[in-house]
Specification:
The chain has 639 residues and is mainly beta. Helix content is 2%, strand content 38%. The protein has a 26-stranded parallel sheet that branches. A 13-stranded parallel sheet has the order 4-6-16-19-22-25-28-31-34-38-41-44-52, with no helix packed on it. Strands 8-15-10-11-12-9 form a six-stranded antiparallel sheet, with no helix packed on it. It starts with a strand and ends in a 7-residue tail after the last strand.
Length: 639
């Protein structure tokens, strides 16, 4: 069947043959759902001849838990575009040839209506773009419409509201690249929900117009969703724009979502944009070997790119050169899995209370050249194994190269471990209390070639002994590398104050936000009983581990006595600790909550609460750093 006209609302379209959009004019298909199953194919353009005109799929319908196919965990819902039990999606929009995203070539100041990019672009008048923030406030991301383009110079429809940095800096023989990213939102193929009226998110009041400015407030909605379930034959989507998608609070209802699709070596998602999302972005669930390349995400509720459940099937996905600008934490009632902040980390329900631009629950996936550019109470890259993953420890193979993370906000008081957010990169591979050294000869897993700056908590947080941060550039930080459990810090450059006048280099403070009681995310316990017991066993040597030394080397080369108390080793400027009786504890242990203040300047913070006495810091360089490194040993008080 060839679609050569615009349709009324068709109620539902099931494709078991071929449905092809005819090029040459505007085509819009409106329906409650559009589904390819079995040998069915939906085609808009081909790889050799991409679709040149405008094609729009508008999905309609009101909120419901009904499903047109499947049941239980395989129910695919409605108001969808996708596949089930076979099916092929071939979408190749001509927009794939446009510059997906780039960076500024010169600093753009508030009031400027013309920006210079680092390269010539082929954008057109009427295209929408987003300019990423440069400082510490993620809401300084700005959406604009292109008026004209002349090579690398773009005229905007209105002046900028904020400054955006567009220069590189040389320090210690290395290049510090903090140029703001600029992403293209418009594509010539579109999938959208029919949601045109803004809805208030949770208990908030959303007063931005649809597709308005970046805001801490957010929209909710029962939008369109793309789902490719139960072994599609192939899904190839490029040059597509998705908005008003995702279904707030409903599990498995995301803009572009492989759902138990298993091995997909012939599938890819490339040169697309997802923006103004009601729930998440690009998802591989129970699916491996999908390539996600040169995509853009903007204004995303929750995680943007994710590997969802840590399943064995979720390996060898490739995330390459994607851009995320602004994702946010939403209230618990608006999250698909609920969840609340938990000190133990075992009730976080996919950690939506601290979402990530890239949330990776199975470590055996490839992340190369991606940029995570700002988020509210969020993280840039989050390797999260606390829910468990179906990979033997000896088979873990992390590939993380040349990624960038900046402008992730934290709480007004910086929290510790499972409650903390505002990281460029966060690596928490195992639940608290689980032995993290089961295989002493395991290889190192490198966070390599990272650029991170202006992140509200720490640029990098690792709490797995086999993690190494190396050959990276960390700038404008409170803490550069917060290393727990003996993580290694090697051959990195730490720049305490960069030339970026928009961020900390300009002497400003970190943008910070604080939770309120109504969020349901507040807790003052640092560890649960099981964690305290495990640490106490380590300290006492009851399980065969050696007891920590009473002396420990501090970053300045001197030695100090480590006190078994609630005190940070001569580092009161970095935080205060509060101790309270754990009502659930039967052994009298006490819980300790740590809050970090706004002091800055520690390049490497080695926290030896876990099992290694001596940190591993090798060949790092420091530029204008107040304190290059420090170490502390802590132990829980027992009554």
């Amino acid at each position: 069947m060839v679609l050569d006209q615009n349709t009324p609302n068709l109620g539902g379209v099931t494709v078991q043959g071929v449905l092809e959009f005819k090029d040459g004019a505007y085509r819009e298909l409106t329906s409650d759902y559009v589904l390819a199953e079995g040998d069915g194919m939906i085609r808009i353009g081909t790889e050799d001849e991409p679709f040149q005109s405008k094609a729009v799929i508008t999905l309609t319908g009101t909120e419901t838990d009904e499903s047109i196919r499947g049941s239980g965990g395989m129910a695919i819902g409605t108001k969808l575009f996708g596949t089930f039990d076979g099916g092929i999606i071939d979408i190749h929009g001509a927009s794939r040839e446009k510059t997906d995203w780039t960076q500024l070539g010169a600093t753009a100041n508030a009031g400027d209506q013309r920006i210079q990019l680092k390269e010539a672009v082929n954008w057109e008048p009427g295209d929408e773009i987003v300019i990423a923030p440069s400082g510490t406030d993620p809401t300084e991301a700005e959406r604009r419409t292109v008026e004209s383009v002349d090579g690398d110079t773009v005229e905007l429809n209105s002046g900028l509201d904020h400054d955006h940095f567009g220069e590189t800096q040389e320090a210690k023989g290395r290049t510090v690249d903090m140029r703001a990213e600029v992403g293209l939102l418009t594509r010539n193929v579109v999938m959208r929900g029919d949601n045109e009226v803004s809805n208030p998110g949770g208990e908030g009041t959303y007063n931005n117009p649809t597709k308005g400015d970046t805001s801490l407030e957010y929209e909710t909605g029962f939008g369109a969703h793309g789902i490719f379930a139960k072994d599609p034959k192939r899904v190839q989507i490029e040059g597509m724009e998705i908005y008003h998608a995702g279904q707030t609070g409903h599990k498995a209802r995301y803009p572009l979502h492989f759902h138990h699709a298993n091995e997909q070596p012939n599938s890819y998602i490339a040169h697309n944009s997802v923006h103004d999302s009601y729930q998440r972005g690009y998802n591989s669930h129970g699916t491996g070997n999908v390539t996600y390349e040169r995509n853009v995400g903007y204004d995303i509720n929750g995680h943007c790119f994710l590997v969802e459940e840590g399943l064995e099937a979720e390996q060898n996905n490739v995330f390459r050169e994607n851009l995320v600008v602004f994702n946010r934490r939403v209230r618990r009632g608006d999250r698909p899995f609920g969840g609340r902040a938990s000190a133990s980390g075992d009730s976080n329900e996919q950690n939506d209370f601290r979402p990530a631009a890239f949330w990776i629950s199975n470590p055996n996936n490839v992340l190369e050249g991606n940029h995570a550019a700002g988020g509210y109470l969020a993280n840039g890259f989050f390797y999260d194994g606390r829910g468990g993953f179906e990979v033997d420890e000896a088979d873990i193979d992390i590939t993380f190269r040349n990624n960038t993370a900046h402008t992730y906000s934290a709480d007004a008081e910086l929290r510790y471990k499972n409650l903390a957010r505002g990281f460029g990169v966060l690596v928490q591979m195992f639940p608290d209390g689980v032995e993290q050294f089961p295989f002493p000869e395991a290889p190192e897993h490198s966070i390599e070639g990272l650029t991170a700056y202006n992140n509200g908590h720490s640029a990098v947080w690792t709490e797995w002994s086999h993690t190494t941060l190396e050959d990276s550039v960390i700038a404008d930080f409170r803490v550069g590398h917060f290393a727990i459990g003996g993580s290694t810090t090697r051959s990195n450059l730490f720049v305490g104050s960069s030339n970026n006048p928009v961020g900390r280099g300009g002497g400003g403070d970190f943008f910070s936000t604080s939770d309120t009681g109504s969020s349901g995310d507040s807790t003052h316990e640092e560890y649960d009983e099981a964690v305290e017991k495990a640490i106490e066993q380590k300290r006492n040597g009851s399980d065969g581990a050696k007891e920590p030394r009473k002396e420990t080397k501090i970053g300045n080369g001197s030695y100090g006595t480590s006190q078994v108390s609630k005190k940070l080793n001569n580092s009161s400027s970095y935080g205060t600790e509060k101790t309270s009786k754990n009502p659930n504890s039967s052994n009298g242990t006490r819980t300790t909550s740590t809050y970090y203040g706004t002091s800055d300047g520690t390049g490497i913070f080695n926290d030896t609460i876990y099992y290694r006495d001596t940190p591993s810091n090798e060949a790092n360089e420091f530029d204008s750093v107040v304190q290059p490194s420090r170490q502390r040993i802590r132990a829980l008080e027992v009554s």
